[in-house]
Write a structure and sequence with these properties.
The protein is globular and about 55 Å long. It is of the alpha/beta class and 289 residues long. The structure holds nicotinamide-adenine-dinucleotide.
């Protein structure tokens, strides 16, 4: 029997969107428009679809979305040039560069060129450094989403044991740092960690961000824990249907956890909402500078 409360990412995202629409309208009223410029290089289907959806989401809350589509053959200098022009343009509140970039382009170099105050995905290493130091910064959207979802449960983080499975630069590592800033006791684990289940069972708050479908079963979860599922994978069911799943074996984990976020409908929609919030934050800071 399910005992866990569901952390409804769609409902939370809808709330954030309502708040953003109000903040955008307030900025508009002061003659300041809010604009997100995204750079998309080449024909990657996934990235193009994501970019279009993002444009739609932005427009829903009144954010202007400008997509810069560069050809497949663009060089690192072409992309860098575009980023630098957007940095210098006072009409642009926020910038993001869609991945993947073409082979041979140094993605990290391109990301490090995005102006820190417009870096809406928090990918410039300077923003990551600012997170570590607890300075005002733009934090990667998925990490922000996870923190908001934990906060929504009301479970206090100070002194709480948190385990984060997965340690990528853009997801796992920033989550760990944000949890440390809340003075939680934080354990970071990865695919080389022995006795994973023993460690995850010690977690009052368990976050999984690996992309391994069903990695977290009920035997790996402490009774009453908060479980946040970041993973997104496409799998084919025994009936031959394709479906999106997370890292967490939802049905069984929901029988032991106190709170669990579903996939789809959990971290995904909240990540998009956090992108909108970062964009509005960036615009407000420039407006008050
Ligand atoms: P990544 O491949 O860069 O990193 C995966 C991490 O998981 C690594 O640290 C690896 O060591 C760890 N890992 C892999 N297999 C493991 C195992 N068996 N046991 C323990 N640890 C293991 O991935 P990423 O970019 O961080 O993304 C992770 C997942 O989150 C993916 O499914 C991705 O699609 C999803 N994601 C979701 C959102 C969202 O908005 N919901 C955003 C970003 C990423």
């Amino acid at each position: 029997m399910q005992q866990a409360k569901i952390i409804d990412g769609r409902a939370m995202a809808a709330d954030v969107k309502r708040q953003m629409a109000q903040r955008v309208a307030a900025l508009d009223g002061r003659g300041r428009s809010v604009r997100l410029d995204a750079v998309l290089v080449g024909q990657d289907g996934g990235a193009a679809l994501y970019a279009r959806n993002q444009g739609k989401m932005c427009r829903e809350v009144g954010i202007e979305h400008v997509l810069h589509e560069l050809s497949d053959g663009s060089t690192e200098d072409d992309i860098a040039d575009r980023v630098l022009r957007l940095n210098a343009d006072p009409q642009v509140s926020a910038i993001m560069v869609h991945l993947p970039l073409p082979d041979g382009v140094d993605t990290e170099r391109v990301q490090s060129l995005i102006a820190v105050e417009k870096d809406v995905e928090g990918v410039n290493p300077a923003n990551i450094g600012n997170i570590v130091y607890g300075r005002r910064s733009l934090v990667p959207c998925t990490a922000l989403a996870v923190m908001e979802m934990i906060e929504s449960t009301g479970v206090p983080l100070r002194g709480t044991c948190c385990v984060c499975v997965g340690a990528s630069n853009i997801v796992g590592k920033p989550i760990v740092v944000l949890l440390m800033r809340c003075e939680a006791t934080v354990i970071s684990v990865n695919k080389y960690t022995p006795n994973l289940g023993e460690i995850t069972r010690s977690a009052d708050v368990l976050i999984s961000a690996t992309g391994v479908p069903g990695l977290i079963g009920s035997a790996m979860v402490k009774t009453g824990a908060v479980v946040i599922d970041v993973g997104i994978s496409r799998v084919t069911t025994s009936q031959g249907q394709s479906r999106t799943v997370g890292d967490v074996a939802f049905d069984e984990v929901a029988q032991v956890a106190g709170y669990v976020s579903p996939v789809p409908g959990g971290v995904g929609p909240m990540t998009v909402a956090m992108l909108l919030r970062n964009t509005v934050d960036a615009a407000e800071r420039t407006a008050s500078a």
